[in-house]
UniProtKB/TrEMBL annotation:
GO terms for biological process: proteolysis. One of its GO terms (cellular component) is periplasmic space. This is Probable periplasmic serine endoprotease DegP-like. SUPFAM superfamilies: PDZ domain-like, Trypsin-like serine proteases.
Length: 508
């Protein structure tokens, strides 16, 4: 099973991402879930909305493809036939990447909809990404060349512009997706497999889905019949308002199994407004890197539950430091909104008007505090706000060197930052802390994702400059009855907090 953006239907392309449409049949059980009998017909609504939905086609030049221009057949992910055909095509060309490999034109199809009668059209970014030419076909088969106004890969949206001349375009309004309830009827019109003007219907299956597609995931889920070519198509409510933009599916093979996702209008509209006005998105920014709380972390800082976002690092030049935010704070509320999950905070901050002063409720030193922060503008290429952890296999390090300390009951062996270790792990001369040289695979440290090369720079919010500092912190934690010790850990990929279990063996 995999999650895929519902890309365009591709003709002559080596890659295809499935498209999104809504359920093509209306069952009695769905009618009951929607809270009432099925409408006798969607015909009047479809007739009204059809002229607002467009087909989008793109052309892209692909250079240097192996196989003399032959196509790679589409296989399920992991199929042994995929590797077989890849090798066959490379032999036909004489090997991949040859300078004399021919270029070719690849065309693809997607969906979009008109949001302004002057010619503004919304679609997914992945529909038009890397396109050399973009064309828009209206419901009456009139075709226009389109220009790209702006695009946002993070939310997967793009705005196009056509010059309709004397042509009268039918624009559709956005609705309030926050009011959409699970079980509400929805309607979609799109371009599956190039069949323009296809109308399908279903319900909202769930809300606020995070499918790891981007930093601001908040998808509406629908019982969708997913088909290629519906990317960028609108999801309408029963009033004929756009409440979502169809974007992704879950499918074992790329075809429909009835689980699809749409970008909610509440997330899309501010992005689209910025793209139209500025050609880019101006997002709010606090200048903090955050991570989620686990049970051990929450207990360590005295929180009664795991709600909130743990501040892993505050940018010294960002708005957060001016507001008084510090490393180790837990953000509980932002501008009156509860941070029930870590991932909520980046979206709330990004959607806040630049320059607005907001209240930020934090947890620090065992109690709540309220700070005032003036939201700044996110830099063009900021570091990701969410700090992702993870587990890896733990290679063993050599033992017996000077400055090495094994801390019983933790699974950790640590060392001072000697010149040899700095060179081995790529640590510059200015960095302070101690380095992890070994992690026992059956330990709590391994379960928390610690690995050789990680730098421990703080323990219980106190600087760690020598292995003995960590040993002392562990001893004090155990004497106080603490179940874990909060470490601040850094490596070239991330900076995060880790609640190191102080009991023997791996946690169950």
């Amino acid at each position: 099973m995999f999650i895929s953006k519902i890309n365009h239907h591709s003709a002559g392309s080596r890659f295809v991402i499935a498209g999104l449409a809504l359920l093509a049949w209306v069952s009695a059980s769905a009618a009951q879930a929607a809270g009432g009998p099925a409408p006798s017909s969607f015909a009047d609504l479809a007739e009204k909305l059809l002229p607002s939905v467009v087909n989008i086609s793109t052309t892209q030049t692909i250079k240097g493809q192996a196989g003399g221009g032959l196509e790679m057949p589409q296989f399920p992910p992991g199929s042994p036939l995929e590797e077989f055909f890849k090798e066959f095509l490379e032999r036909q060309q004489g090997g991949p990447g040859r300078p004399d490999a021919p270029s070719r034109k690849a065309t693809s199809l997607g969906s979009g909809f008109i949001v302004d009668a002057t010619g503004y059209i919304v679609t997914n970014n992945h529909v038009i990404a890397d396109a050399d030419e973009i064309s828009v076909k209206l419901h009456d088969d009139t075709v226009f060349a389109a220009t790209l106004v702006g695009r946002d890969p993070k939310v997967d949206l793009a705005v196009l512009k056509i010059d309709p001349g004397k042509k009268i375009l039918a624009a559709v309004p956005f609705g309030n997706s926050d009011e959409a309830r699970v079980g509400d009827w929805v309607l979609a019109i799109g371009n599956p497999f190039g069949f323009g003007g296809t109308v399908t219907a279903g319900i909202v299956s769930a809300r606020a889905r995070d499918i790891n597609a981007g930093p601001y995931d908040d998808f509406l889920q629908t019982d969708a019949a997913i088909n290629r070519g519906n990317s960028g198509g609108p999801m309408f409510n029963i009033k004929g308002e756009v409440i979502g933009i169809n974007s992704a599916i879950i499918s074992p093979s790329g075809g429909s199994i009835g689980i699809g996702f749409a970008i909610p209008a509440s997330l899309a509209t501010p992005v689209l407004d910025d793209l139209r006005k500025f050609g880019k998105v101006r997002r709010g920014w606090l200048g903090i890197r955050i991570q989620s709380l686990d049970v051990d972390m929450a207990e360590n800082v005295g929180l009664p539950d795991q709600h909130g976002a743990l501040v892993a690092k505050v940018d010294p030049a960002g708005p957060g430091v001016k507001a008084g935010l510090k490393d180790g704070d837990v953000v509980l509320k932002f501008d009156g909104k509860d941070i029930t999950e870590m991932r909520r905070l980046p979206r709330y901050v990004a959607g806040t008007p630049i320059g607005k002063k907001v209240e930020v409720v934090i947890w620090r030193d065992g109690k709540k505090q309220t700070l005032m922060a003036a939201v700044g503008e996110m830099p063009e290429d900021p570091a990701d706000q969410a700090v992702k952890g993870g587990k890896t296999d733990q290679p063993k390090a050599k033992e017996g060197k000077d400055g090495v300390l094994s801390i019983p009951g933790t699974g950790l062996t640590v060392s001072s930052l000697t010149p040899a270790l700095r060179e081995r792990f790529g640590v510059d001369d200015e960095t302070k802390g101690i380095v992890v040289t070994e992690v026992k695979p059956d330990s709590g440290a391994a379960e928390k994702g610690l690995r050789p090369g990680d730098l421990i720079i703080e323990a219980d919010h106190k600087p760690v400059r020598a292995p003995a500092d960590l040993g002392k912190a562990v001893e004090e934690g155990r004497k106080s009855g603490a179940k874990s010790l909060l470490l601040r850990v850094e490596n070239p990929q991330q900076l995060r907090y880790v609640a190191l279990p102080l009991s023997e063996g791996k946690k169950k």
